[in-house]
Specification:
The chain is mainly α. 65% of the residues lie in helices and 0% in strands. The protein has helices spanning 11-21, 24-31, 35-43, 50-64. Helix 1 crosses helix 3 (35-43).
Amino acid sequence: MFKLDIPEWDRDQIKILVKSFGSIRRFCIATGLRPQSVSEWISGKRQPTVTSRWALKAIAQERYKV
């Protein structure tokens, strides 16, 4: 059985990633994520789902060429 390494995300990382696009609106247009979800992640009301974490990791890798 293999272990799936789920990326961890905190609010600060999401804020930095969104700021790199200029605004939540631009970030959501570019990524296809819902503005309400992104706002809730930044405010701390909700945590990103596992699928969203993988999407955020892929966006960050593409954005910063990590």
